[in-house]
Amino acid sequence: MSYEGRSDGLDYYPCSYEASRTVFRGPLSALDAPFTAVIGGSEVYGRYVEDPFTDQLAERTGRRVVNFGVMNGGLDVFAQDAALMRLIARADVAVIQVTGAQNLSNRYYTVHPRRNDRFLRQSQIMTALYRDVDFSDFTFTRHMLTTLRKVSPDRFRQIEAELQVAWVARMRLLLSRLPGRRILLWVETGQDRGFGQEPAFVTLEMVQALEGSIDGIVQVDVADTYGEAHLAAMTFPETERGAARHALTPAGHTRVAETLARVVRRANGLAA
Q1: pTM of the prediction?
Q2: Which of 28, 73, 174, 256 could bridge 53 with an S-S bond, Cβ 3.0-4.6 Å?
């Protein structure tokens, strides 16, 4: 349901863990017992949804599940936060969402270490490549990349290639710091927000390049759970209806939980 107002009506119980400054959806969970960690972006966080798939996963597996989802978060939130990675490394099973490649630092530009969708600065290489662009106009990575592609699709291919290389390298770094069982979660939303199917710039070949570092891949197609009909089951202010249209719906969360639970149960040595 939608309504007027500044709050989206849900209490996310925001919390942080030990020395990490990153804020997650709560309530705060104990990390001193066997648990499953789920790390990723907005879909993991579960904005506008009262019962995110992480909570449902805990119910279906009978194990504690910690929601390490960050709104608009990319790989840098985790790979660049040593304190946070030490906490996540305690998990018996780590589920890592396949997030887009646009929100990570690379040879062309730097993003905010915790709010990865925020553009901080371009490199000298980027300045030389796009001398006809004023980078002071940009706050968000998606806006910047959309503009750069419009200015020159040919030059933009260099940036896209760099993002893909950086994504694989950063994912390998992150996986190398997780000693438990590692499962990739690819949520197929069917949405195109300007760069092809989400997650942006990530291809099947890039994911396959990680096969030696993971214990499994879970792909969940939730494309049919989007649309106006599903917005009625979500809670958001009317001013954020546009953002809610891109958010994973309650039906999508349930489908992810159902699919993921079977794999996580096997990883924990339980009957599927």
Answers
A1: 0.93
A2: 256
Q: How many residues in the chain? A: 272
Query: Taking Cα atoms as reference points, which of 244, 128, 248, 149 lies closest to residue 190?
Result: 248
- pLDDT, one tens digit for every residue, the chain (272 residues): 544 444 458 999 999 999 898 999 999 999 988 999 999 999 999 999 999 999 999 999 999 999 999 999 999 999 989 999 999 999 999 999 999 999 999 999 999 999 999 999 999 999 999 999 999 999 999 999 999 999 999 999 999 999 999 999 999 999 999 999 999 999 999 888 888 889 999 999 999 999 999 999 999 999 999 988 889 999 999 999 999 999 999 999 999 999 999 999 988 776 55
Written as six digits, the tokens of 6 are 């500044």
What are residue 186's DSSP bridge partners?
219
